[in-house]
C-alpha cells in the first residue's frame, strides 16, 4: 500500500465534490494520507441491495476503507476487502478495480439481525477475520493481508492491519450518514487516513556540552512528536464533518492542518460499476460439468444467474452449452 505523494499540489477549493479520494501531505509533520468522500456512487450501491439500515451502514464503512486503499494502486489492478465472521453480518465483500470502479455486497442473518439490539460494527461483525487482497492480474503479483476481527469494528481492524502488515503508523476514521431531502433518503460516507511517512527523519537529541554545570540534563528529542501532533489534530475531526455535503474536502483538510500547512493533490474519482458481463457469466457456467448445469435449471427450463454485487439477473438456455 506504500505510495509516494503525487504531484503537483492543487489549490484549496470550496466546491464540494463527492465520489473521490483526495491525497494530501502535511510535510512539517511528516504525514500524508487520503480523504475519501462517497455520495451518489455509494447511494446507488446501497439502494440496489436495499439492505436493513445497520447492514447498509457497515457496508458503507467497508466501501470507504476499500476506496482509501484501492485508489493508491498504481496502474491496473484490483483490491478486495472481505470479512468472514460469526456475527449477524457474516460477510462483507467490496471490490475496487483501478482506477475508479467500486462494487460491494453483504451477507447477513436476518433473524439474528432482527434480534440484535446493538448495531455497532463490533456487534454486527463479531469475531472472525478481515482480509485485504491485491491482484494485479497474475498469480505472481497477488498479495493478501489478514487480520483478526476480535469483537471490534472496521476502524480498529484497519489499525491492526497497518500495524501488522505495513508497519506504518496510521490513523483511520470512518463515518456514515443518511441525508434526507425532497428527493428522498440518500447515503453518504467519508473517511480520513493519516500515515507517518516511512522515510521521515527522527529528530536528533542535542549533544552534551562538555563544560555544562553539574546536574545538567541535555534535551532529549522525541522522535514521535510530529506524529503525536498529527494524531491530536486528526482526532478533532467529527463524524459530521466527514459527511457534510456543503463542506469541501480541501476546506476540511485546511481546518485540520492549516497551522502546519497542508498540500492537496489531484483527486481520484470513484464510480459505481460492476465488472460482471453476459460473456463472463457464460464462461463461468461452461466451467461446470453437464450434470452440475442440469441441477441449475429452474422450472422454466432456464439457468438463472444473479450477480451478488449488482443484482443483475441473466438467463441462459441449457441447450446453448451442448
CATH class value of the largest domain = Alpha Beta
Give the assembly state of these chains. single chain
Q: Give the overall average pLDDT.
A: 88
CATH topology of the largest domain: Hsp33 domain
| SSE ordering | EEHHEEEHHEEHEEHHHEEEHHEE
Keywords:
322 residues, Hsp33 domain, CBS domain Like, 2 domains, six-stranded antiparallel β-sheet, six-stranded mixed β-sheet, disordered N terminus
Describe this structure in words.
By secondary structure, this protein is of the alpha+beta class. The protein has 2 domains: 20-202 and 223-272, Hsp33 domain (3-Layer(bab) Sandwich), CATH 3.55.30.10; 278-321, Alpha-Beta Complex (CBS domain Like). It has helices at residues 40-49, 53-70, 110-115, 121-125, 154-166, 225-234, 239-243, 249-257, 278-286, 290-296, and strands at residues 20-26, 31-38, 78-85, 89-97, 101-108, 127-135, 143-150, 170-181, 184-196, 263-264, 268-269, 271-272, 303-306, 313-316. The strands form 3 sheets. Strands 1, 2, 8, 9, 10 and 11 form a 6-stranded antiparallel β-sheet that branches. A 6-stranded mixed β-sheet has the order 7-6-3-4-5-12. A hairpin with a 3-residue loop joins strand 3 and strand 4.
What is the topology?
Layout: E1 20-26, E2 31-38, H1 40-49, H2 53-70, E3 78-85, E4 89-97, E5 101-108, H3 110-115, H4 121-125, E6 127-135, E7 143-150, H5 154-166, E8 170-181, E9 184-196, H6 225-234, H7 239-243, H8 249-257, E10 263-264, E11 268-269, E12 271-272, H9 278-286, H10 290-296, E13 303-306, E14 313-316
Summary?
The protein is α+β, with helices and mostly antiparallel strands and 322 residues long.
Amino acid at each position: 500500500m506504500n505510495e509516494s505523494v503525487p504531484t503537483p499540489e492543487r489549490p484549496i477549493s470550496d466546491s464540494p465534490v463527492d465520489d473521490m479520494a483526495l491525497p494530501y501531505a502535511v510535510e512539517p509533520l511528516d504525514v500524508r494520507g487520503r480523504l475519501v468522500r462517497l455520495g451518489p456512487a455509494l447511494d446507488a450501491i446501497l439502494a440496489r441491495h436495499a439492505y436493513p439500515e445497520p447492514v447498509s451502514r457497515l457496508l458503507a464503512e467497508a466501501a470507504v476503507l476499500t476506496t482509501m486503499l484501492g485508489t493508491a494502486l498504481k496502474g491496473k489492478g484490483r483490491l478486495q476487502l472481505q470479512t468472514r465472521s460469526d456475527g449477524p453480518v457474516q460477510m462483507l465483500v467490496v471490490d475496487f478495480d483501478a482506477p475508479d470502479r467500486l462494487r460491494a455486497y453483504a451477507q447477513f442473518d436476518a433473524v439474528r439481525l432482527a434480534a440484535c439490539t446493538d448495531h455497532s460494527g463490533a456487534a454486527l461483525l463479531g469475531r472472525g477475520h478481515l482480509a485485504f487482497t491485491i491482484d494485479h492480474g497474475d498469480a505472481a503479483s497477488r498479495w493478501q493481508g489478514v487480520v483478526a476481527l476480535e469483537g471490534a469494528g472496521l476502524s480498529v481492524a484497519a489499525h491492526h492491519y497497518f500495524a501488522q502488515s505495513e508497519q506504518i503508523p496510521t490513523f483511520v476514521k470512518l463515518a456514515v450518514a443518511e441525508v434526507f431531502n425532497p428527493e428522498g433518503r440518500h447515503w453518504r460516507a467519508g473517511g480520513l487516513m493519516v500515515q507517518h511517512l516511512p522515510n521521515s527523519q527522527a529528530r536528533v537529541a542535542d549533544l552534551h556540552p562538555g563544560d555544562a554545570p553539574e546536574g545538567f540534563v541535555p534535551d532529549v528529542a522525541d522522535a514521535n512528536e510530529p506524529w503525536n501532533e498529527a494524531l491530536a489534530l486528526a482526532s478533532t475531526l467529527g463524524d459530521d464533518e466527514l459527511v457534510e455535503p456543503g463542506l469541501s474536502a480541501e476546506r476540511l483538510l485546511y481546518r485540520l492542518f492549516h497551522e502546519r500547512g497542508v498540500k492537496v493533490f489531484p483527486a481520484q474519482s470513484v464510480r459505481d460499476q460492476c465488472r460482471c458481463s453476459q460473456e463472463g457469466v457464460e464462461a463461468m457456467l461452461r466451467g461446470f460439468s453437464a450434470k452440475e448445469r442440469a441441477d441449475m435449471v429452474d422450472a422454466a427450463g432456464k439457468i438463472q444467474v444473479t450477480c451478488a454485487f449488482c443484482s443483475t439477473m441473466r438467463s441462459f438456455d441449457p441447450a446453448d452449452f451442448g
